[in-house]
């Protein structure tokens, strides 16, 4: 499938892995694909996302904060109060991730857990091909990945984009305008 990807689309996929790793996530999700498009140095998706008022720093901050705090708040759990209570009992930084101890030698090699695509990201990439074909394009560009993320709907990337006012139909209009302007 990646043989149809433009260079920018391939860079988006590899950058999504780098971003997921940097955030300490063990799976690449649709949210990482969006972040990679935002952080990229061009392309139709980058243009559309930036024109919609999104930027990589605020997107990264949303991902770092996680959507867990909002979910817990919705059921009446104040994560800041829980953190404070734990740190009073166990000391400051008790909830911070500890790096595993370095072990040397033949039997104990430090290994990193490989980052893989989650089901939502896999589906979004599959849908990007369908979007490209429906637009009668013989390539998959960043614009198709962006539309694939929105078409997937259940992923965190699509949910956050919708919260920022980006629907599939409106984004398709923006993509088509950007494609005309680029031609």
TrEMBL record:
Entry annotated with the keyword Hydrolase: yes
Q: Give the residues annotated as coiled coil.
A: none
Entry keyword annotation includes Transmembrane: no
Clp R domain location is: 2-181
- Which BP terms in the Gene Ontology apply to this protein? proteolysis
Q: Which is one GO molecular function term here? A: peptidase activity
InterPro entries in alphabetical order: Clp_N_dom_sf (IPR036628), Clp_R_N (IPR004176), CLPT1/2 (IPR044217)
Which controlled-vocabulary keywords does the entry list? Hydrolase, Protease, Repeat
Q: Looking at the record's lineage, which domain of life comes first?
A: Bacteria
Q: Which PROSITE patterns match?
A: CLP_R
Task: State the PANTHER family in the record.
Answer: ATP-DEPENDENT CLP PROTEASE ATP-BINDING SUBUNIT CLPT1, CHLOROPLASTIC (PTHR47016), CLP DOMAIN SUPERFAMILY PROTEIN (PTHR47016:SF5)
Q: What protein name does the entry list?
A: Clp protease
Q: Which organism is it from?
A: Dactylosporangium fulvum
Lineage summary: Bacteria, Bacillati, Actinomycetota, Actinomycetes, Micromonosporales
């Amino acid at each position: 499938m990646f043989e149809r990807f433009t260079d920018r689309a391939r860079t988006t996929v590899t950058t999504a892995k780098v971003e997921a790793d940097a955030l300490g996530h063990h799976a690449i999700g649709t949210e990482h694909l969006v972040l990679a498009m935002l952080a990229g140095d061009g392309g139709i998706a980058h243009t559309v996302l930036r024109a919609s008022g999104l930027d990589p720093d605020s997107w990264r901050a949303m991902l770092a904060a996680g959507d867990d705090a909002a979910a817990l708040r919705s059921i009446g759990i104040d994560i800041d109060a829980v953190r404070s209570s734990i740190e009073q009992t166990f000391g400051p930084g008790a909830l911070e991730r500890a790096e595993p101890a370095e072990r040397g030698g033949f039997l104990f090699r430090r290994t990193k857990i490989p980052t893989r695509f989650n089901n939502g990201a896999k589906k979004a990439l599959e849908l990007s091909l369908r979007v490209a074909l429906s637009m009668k394009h013989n390539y998959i560009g960043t614009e198709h990945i962006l539309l694939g993320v929105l078409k997937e709907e259940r992923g965190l990337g699509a949910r956050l984009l919708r919260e920022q006012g980006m629907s599939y139909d409106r984004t398709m209009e923006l993509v088509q305008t950007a494609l005309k302007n680029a031609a």
